[in-house]
């Protein structure tokens, strides 16, 4: 089985992206196209998806269907596994079968698998400084599933499938979907008049700007066979050392120095959980906000050099613009702040 992620037998770079309509999947797909890859994207409504991202080769299919994934992966040298159940629903029954289909296809065609990882597979015992090889003792069901995902990918790597995992902090970005920033801190489509912050002043938190995460993944892909067969990396991202730096960036971007920062009402989650899947998940992840959490990127820097970093105010402006939280005629000159 060949495993050269740069070229297939026709010297064409082909990638299959699962989850291309999502935040990280969409960002990686766009970068692949810009770098000359032919990008296939599998979707249950390919015609609809093609309307918003016509630069991708959309294929009708379902990541839960092994034959659909295998057919879409033909001649591919890279599979981006960024697919997740919509709105956090049905994780227990969907996530692992979808990953198994990706692994089976990767083994068949000789493709590398790259996975945007999370920190959910680590428990508080691994904090406050989280290294790639820390013990994985999850405290939630979702975390246990993440542990099992990585275990299956590790087993696949022992059979010759090259695997890259990039773990990062909480996402924010112009195309961010199910995450704390867009579902817990601000309201998409509405100009920012307040921010609800889940943590407490003095407790550091790790954030990751989606376009920077996608660029990091691409640079690792381009390292090809120089990486270990199973390679896991942590991004440092944006380290909010005292829990006030991200909200300060929002204040600067919207030009409201006195923008109200409200505490997240954790007490209400048990009442909302039965009706809102995100709120149920949020309650389980409360532990991530109770202690400082920082992810050193030493291993990543050794692999690709300096980590991609968009200046925080520029990243925040792009995020709020993409989420429809700034007026159409809004102008922000970063040099003035």
TrEMBL record:
InterPro entries, A to Z: NAD(P)-bd_dom, NAD(P)-bd_dom_sf, NAD(P)-dependent_oxidoreduct
Gene Ontology molecular function: aldehyde dehydrogenase (NAD+) activity
Pfam families registered for this protein in UniProt: NAD_binding_10
Residue ranges annotated for the NAD(P)-binding domain, each copy included: 19-171
Entry GO terms, CC: cytoplasm
SUPFAM superfamilies: NAD(P)-binding Rossmann-fold domains (SSF51735)
PANTHER family: NAD(P)-BINDING DOMAIN-CONTAINING PROTEIN-RELATED (PTHR48079:SF6), PROTEIN YEEZ (PTHR48079)
Entry protein name: NAD(P)-binding domain-containing protein
